[in-house]
Amino acid sequence: MAREETIEVSVILPCLDEEGTVGACVRQIRTALDGAGIRGEVIVADNGSTDASVECATREGARVVEVRARGYGNALREGLAAARSRCLVFMDADLSYAPSDVPAFVAALRDGAALVIGSRMRGSIEPGAMPRLHRRLGTPVLTGLANLFFGCGITDINCGMRALTKDTLDKLNLHSDGMEFASEMMIKAAQAGIRITEIPIAFHVDQRGREPHLRSFRDGWRHLQLILHFAPLWVFFGPGLVLTLGGLAILWPEWDWPTALPVYLTALSASLLGVEILLVGIIAQGRVTYSKHLNTNMEISDAFRRLVRIEKGVVLGGIIAAAGAMLLGHALWKTLGLEAGQAATGVIREALLAALLFISGALVFFASLFMGLFGLRVVDDEVGPRRTPTTTPSRHAPDKNPAETESE
User: What is the number of other CB atoms lying within 10 angstroms of the CB of residue 207?
Assistant: First the structure.
C-alpha cells in the first residue's frame, strides 16, 4: 500500500457548480500524472456547489474539501492548506486549462523553480476563450502595473494555472478572498525575491456550458485595488511631488495684474494638495501591513521615520508654521500701508506663499504627531485580519483508502 509520504504532487481545483467539467478534469489530471509516473492527489475545494459537482469529483477519485467562505481566494487557500505534498499545482475545473500540462509544471518545480505560472499570452488562446476586453486591456494593464511597481517580470498575471512549493506558499502568507488572489501571489513573490518561472500554455474555451463566475469590471477593480494597496508610494508620491513643485513654480514669479490672483490661488491649491498627498502616501506606506517574510521596499517611509520622528516633526512643523504666520503678518502690514488703487500683486504673492508655509507646517506637525503616536512601522503579521479556517472534512471523500487513490 502506498504511503501518504510518497505523494509528490497535489493538484487543487477550486469548484463552484462545475458538474459539467469537474469529473472529466479530475480524470484527465490523474491520467496525466500516471502517464508521467508522478504519484499525486487531486483535491477539489468545493465552494458551496448546489449541483452534482461533489459527486462527480468523488466518483473520479478526488478528495473533496468543503469551503464555507465564498470566493476564489478562499477556496484556493483552503484547498492548498489541505494538500499532503510538497509540490502544489492549481488550475480551474472548467477545462480551460489542459490537464495534460500538469507534468510540465511539476518538472519546473523539480528543476528548482519555487513558483511557476502559465502564460496564455506567450502560448495560445483559442478563439472565444478570452473576452477581447480581457485580452487587449484588462490583463495587459494589470500585468504591466505589477511589472512596473514590483518587477514581477511576467506576461500574464491573471493566468489561473500555477504551481509552487509548500515552502513558497508559507512564505507568501496569502489572504485575498476573491479573484485578486492571483495578483497578491505574484506581487508578494516578487517582493520576496522568489524565483518565478513562466510556461507558455494553451487556453481553451471552457466546457461548462454556462456563464462564468468572473465579473470583468468588479473583479478587475479588485485586482487594481490590491495592486495599488501594495504600492502606496507610487499612488501618492508621484502625483504629490508634481503638484507641490508645479504649484511652487507657478507661485514664485510675479504675474501681471489682474491675472495674478486666479493663477496664484490655483498654484496655492496645487501645492497644498501635493503636500497633503505626499504626507498621506508616507503614512500609508508605513501603515501597510506585510508578512514578516517579505521585502516590503519601504525605504522612503523608513528614511522619513528616521528623519522626522515625533520630536523632529513637531519642531520642524512648528518652525515652518511660525515662519508662515510671520510672513502673513508682514504681508498684512504691507497691505494696510498701500494707498487706494496701488497694485498689490507682490503683496498677494507674498501672502499666498506665507499661507503655503503656514498650512504645510501644520500638516507636517500633525502628520509627524500621528506617525509618532500610532507607530509608523511594519506590523509583523499579514494584510487584513487573520481568518479562522473554515475548511471542514468532507463527507464526500472516496470510500476507499486515500493512500490507494493517489495513483491507480
Answer: 13
Number of C-alpha atoms within 13 angstroms, CB side, residue 38? 29
Integer-rounded Cα Rg, in Å, for the chain is: 28
Peptide linkage before 385 cis (omega within 30 of 0): no
| Residue, of 260 and 152, whose pLDDT is higher | 152
pLDDT, tens only, 10-30: 999 999 999 999 999 999 999
Mean pLDDT is lowest, of 40-54, 181-195, 383-397, for: 383-397
Domains and CATH numbers, the chain: 4-229 (3.90.550.10), 232-374 (no CATH)
Q: Which residues are 163's β-sheet partners?
A: 89, 116
In eight-state DSSP terms, residue 136 is: I
Give the three-state DSSP class for 123: strand
Look up cell 519555487; give the residue.
114
Residue 282 burial (10 A CB sphere; 0-12, 13-18, 19+): buried
Residue 301: per-residue pLDDT: 53
| Average pLDDT estimate for 312-323 | 82
- C-alpha–C-alpha distance, residues 252 and 162, integer Å: 55
List alpha helices for 128-231, DSSP H: 132-133, 139-150, 166-172, 181-191, 216-229
Contact 362, 276 (CB under 8 A): no
More confident residue, 140 or 314: 140
Rounded to 5 degrees, φ, ψ at 197 are: -115, 135
13 class by beta-carbon count within 10 Å (0-12 exposed, 13-18 middle, 19+ buried): buried
Q: How confident is the model at residue 328 (pLDDT cuts 50, 70, 90)?
A: confident
Task: Please give the single-letter amino acid code of residue 86.
Answer: R
Task: Give the whole-angstrom CA distance, residue 205 versus residue 96.
Answer: 6
How much of the chain is helix, strand and coil, in % rounded to 5?
50, 10, 35
Pairing of strands 87-90, 162-165: antiparallel
Alpha carbon 304 to its chain centroid, in Å, reads: 24
Cite the DSSP H helix spans in 252-386.
260-287, 299-307, 310-336, 345-374
77 pLDDT above the threshold of 80 = yes
DSSP state letter for 134: I
275-300 average pLDDT score: 61
Q: Is the pLDDT of residue 378 over 60?
A: no
